[in-house]
Amino acid sequence: TQYGVVQRPTHRNTSWDMAKFEVCAHRFADLSEYGHGVALLNDCKYGYATRGGAMGLSLLRAPKEPDAHCDMGHHSFRYAVFPHTGAFGDGGVVREAYQFNVPLVQLPVDATVAADAAGVMPFFAVAGAPNVVLDAVKRAEDNGSQVVVRLYEAFGGHARARLSTRLRVASAQLTNILEEPTATVKLAAAPGGATAIELEFRPFEIKTVKFSLKA
Question: What is the pLDDT of residue 161?
Answer without folding.
Answer: 97
